[in-house]
Amino acid sequence: MKIHFASSNSGKLREYRELAEGSQLEIELLPGIRELPPFEESAPTFAENALGKALHYSRYTNEIVLGDDSGLVVPALGGAPGVRSARYAGPSATDGANVQKLLREMKDKKGGDRRARFVCAIAIAFAGRALVIASDFADGIIADEPRGASGFGYDPIFYSTDIGRTFSEIPPEAKNRLSHRGKAFLKVIDYLVPMNSSIPR
Fold first, then answer.
1. How far is CA 107 from CA 76, 126, 135, 147, 175, in A?
2. What would the pLDDT profile of 53-107 be if each residue is shown by its tens digit?
3. Are the C-beta atoms of 137 and 122 separated by less than 8 Å?
4. Domain 2-198, CATH 3.90.950.10 — does that match?
5. Which stretch of DSSP H or E encloses residue 131?
6. What pLDDT, on a 0 to 100 scale, did the predictor assign at position 195?
7. Residues acting as catalytic residues
8. How many helices and strands, by DSSP H and E, does the chain display?
9. What is the model's pLDDT at position 21?
10. Cα(144)–Cα(35) distance, rounded to whole angstroms?
11. Bond before 81 cis per omega within 30 degrees
12. 128, 172, 186, 188: most buried, per Cβ within 10 A?
């Protein structure tokens, strides 16, 4: 089953392809997505943004579309960066700029105030119709400084208390088992693979 990914985020695309290995699902970037009318991610929740994105872009392809919205939630910052995780330091912010801004905001936070949660919502749509929405999370704390060389986004400062390392300090296959995106996508696989022969067309 071919699925078009409604995003230009290369890190997310790589992870979804890794997660889909052996599942009968083939993840490809939505062709020409940069030339299509963009979807404005202005909703207050990850699920609403993921669904809106999937529905919007599903009108431009004959394949199933996957919309993803994910980010980092820090309770001590009132839930920030939240749905603005990719744009925390500005509309065109780099991963590094977002990380540095968050570290500045967390400078005086100690103990439990450094708790954080990665959240991922995934929506699957076809021809303007929603098929499934799934979400999950991973808990951790914000490290004092970036650690590790793999991953992307806030991975270098997201310290998983389950394994005692940041998401950037572990191999991709280990991160995929623990991550918010990995756990949410497993739910999508459980839904889509059994109905591979009966997807509405």
1. 12, 44, 30, 16, 26
2. 999 999 999 999 999 999 999 999 999 999 999 999 999 899 999 999 999 999 9
3. no
4. yes
5. strand 129-142
6. 63
7. 69
8. 5, 7
9. 92
10. 40
11. yes
12. 188
